[in-house]
Amino acid sequence: MIAEAGLAALWLATTFAIAQLMLGAAAARAPDPSAMLPGVRRIALVQALFALAAFLILIWLFVTSDMSVLLVAENSHSLKPMLYKVAGAWGNHEGSMLLWVTVLAVAGAGVALFERRLVAETLSATLAAQAAIAIGFYAFLAFASNPFARLNPAPADGQGLNPLLQDPGLAFHPPTLYLGYVGLSVAFSFAVAALLMRDVGPAFAKAMRPWVLAAWIFLTIGITAGSYWAYYELGWGGWWFWDPVENASLMPWLAATALLHSVNVLATRDGLRAWTLMLAVVAFSMSMVGTFLVRSGILVSVHAFAVDPTRGTFLLVLLGLYIGGALVLFGARVGTVTQGSTFQLVSREAALVLNNLLLSVILGIVLIGTLYPLVAQAMGVQLSIGAPFFEKTAVPIALFLVAGTAAGPLLRWRKDSAQALLSRLTIPVAVAGVTFALFFALSGFASPIAVLVLAFAFGLAAASVAPLWKRKLRRTPLPIYGMVVAHLGVAVSLAGMAADTLFKQERLAAVAIGDNLTVGPFKVTLTEVRPTVGPNWSAMEARLQVQRGSGAPFELVPQQRFFANPPTNTSEAAIATLWDGQVYTVLGAADGAGRWQLRLWWKPFVTLIWAGGGLIALGGILSLSGRVLRARRDARALEEWA
Amino acid sequence: MKKLLIWLPLGLFLLVFALVVNGLIEPSDRIVRSAMIGKPLPAMQLPAIVDGKPGIDTAIWPKGKPRLLNVFASWCIPCVAEAPQLLKLKRAGAQIDAIAVRDTAPAVQAFLARNGDPYARIGDDSAMRAQLSLGSSGVPETFVIDGRGVIVDQHVGDIRAEDVPKLLAALEKAR
């Protein structure tokens, strides 16, 4: 009964989405749209409530282990810990697509509830566009991925969840990432509405900006968390693999980062109108392309969950309709969008254009690298593209981008002089130069690129706090702090990446009980290997005593876990986080003669990678709160004045 | 010029779209073919793994007649399944050598006793180096080596009954 209620909620949500599309479209063309707008707002809210209800029902089915539901039987097990029962609801294709449309509907409801700045026509058109996207994905769920399908007869118990996904990080990683991915749909709908209504200007940009910021914050957190999850759960010691699914999350982030900067130009200076619209379309298009790549199984990936051509075809049709449609609209209408204000070659705007172009180039590289296996396949060759391609192509461009990030905030809007910029950049350039010389010598002249990245990171760190010099700190607006913190986060993250490349040390050895190994400044002793059990797994765990110099020893306990349902081995790395880096240990197989394979890393300052990601997100949060508070204050001031 | 730029994104998207459609219509062949086909056998010196049967040394590879090189392991189930077909090939006159991957002498001995022994020589590839140098990604795989010592064909997976004539034809062609 409950599963049927879920399906009914889904169909009701679809019905309301259709109503929202029709009424929204009608309101956008009505002589008095503001009269119809409240109705559209309410419908958007009801649609979101039904979608949310369907999603909560699915979680309930997982929590109660209702094995008569196919999805639960295939992906859950009654003995699974409660957290993973709940997370199991979105740890599979159908459930994650339901989460996807739920976020879509909730984001639409958010616009309906809170957006007060847009004119009624544009807002109605935005809500209609949001509903149009939702309808397609509801149809996808109903016809190709029904999460509520029954299984008759019901099995005694389920098949379990992929053990790699049984991790607290994963319980929250997909929802966060989806909030970002799908949150970008709002920007897409805004852009479509703006094109339809020919309403592009600072007011439109100011309305769109908080939504872009919010989606971007979630994307940043989601990618950072996903990178850390892969780092400790996959036990490979790496933090980014250029896997198609990782790239699928990186591409919308790159587009959203570009959008975030160009929307500022539009809001502040009324420039880059067409470009901002384009980016808004591209950002969500990248989310949809990413969803398609992951969900169709067209690319081979460690994440490849579902390989299903029917679903792939369905998603592809939706992709063609939405992205193709938006681009046709863009081509047809953008010529009528008048050019915004212009600027000089040396100016804040020019720096932001450079930032946008470089981000777009990196986006292009990632897209080409991700899709290249398909190109090769079309030409009859089989290949896969790995990290070396992306590192060789994207890193040099990223360095230019870092230089632009350092310089941009130190430029004035509209017009500035190159000489003034150079003098403002003296200290950052000096910092970068000294860093390069020092670490190039220190690292034995080994990897100049990594040292260069480190030098740029230090230079950017110096430059990113520069906008606060000679300012009254208490009167500086929050968005400025947001920018400073986010740019500093980029520097911190880059420093972590460079440090990991330059200074990490690795040991791989077979050791007997009582033997010790050294890795970096640490002495690691294998004291014991013993069996242990968890709620739905058994494991061999090694006790390692780790000691730096004559400091206090501490213990690390890496495990080899065996899951019975489904039968899988995973290695649980044990990681010690110290102030200056991490000790990362993995237990491997036994050699049958009393020795165990151990893999040890000392990774100085590797934590900075994710700390930087956190700072970038924090910068976004500061900026968003600044914008929202400011909008409130303005509204209040307007009321008092009126 | 500006007109062109405006429609460029749509053009690029259509290109990607066509590519993806192509990828969907023709799901990729997930079998990994060796890049060594058409190239001479890579040099390898593999010690013998069972008594009384030589290992594999490409320096003294018997030239003149085409041979099969079977990559197998005693722990591999499809290898058991293909054993009768290998015996059939041997009876049809094929010369078969083998590389035992990550294996031990007693295990191979027992495997041959149970499933028959079609091999002229068996090399011990405990570290999988020879297998990798052949471009083989798993067991069992069978390579057709022509009379000059060049790899001319590769069969991925176990040899089924219907594959026997194909392999014999490949041997005939490699003559």
Describe the structure.
The complex is a heterodimer of chains A (642) and B (175). Chain A is of the alpha+beta class. Chain A has 18 helices and ten strands. Chain A folds into four domains: 1-166, no CATH class; 205-221 and 231-333 and 343-408, no CATH class; 425-500 and 610-642, no CATH class; 505-604. In chain A, the strands form two sheets. In chain A, strands 2, 3, 4, 5, 6 and 7 form a six-stranded antiparallel beta sheet that branches. Chain A has a four-stranded antiparallel beta sheet with strand order 1-10-9-8, covered by helices on one side. In chain A, a hairpin with a 4-residue loop joins strand 6 (559-563) and strand 7 (568-572). Chain B contains five helices and seven strands, in the order H-E-E-E-H-E-H-E-H-E-E-H. In chain B, strands 5-4-3-6-7 form a five-stranded mixed beta sheet. The model of chain B has no long low-confidence stretch (mean pLDDT 86). Chain A binds chain B through residues 274, 278, 281-282, 285, 289, 292, 296, 298, 300, 309, 312-313, 316, 319-320, 323-324, 327-328, 330-331, 334-335, 367, 371, 373-375, 377-378, 382, and chain B through 2-3, 6-7, 9-10, 13-14, 16-17, 19-24, 26-30, 32-33.
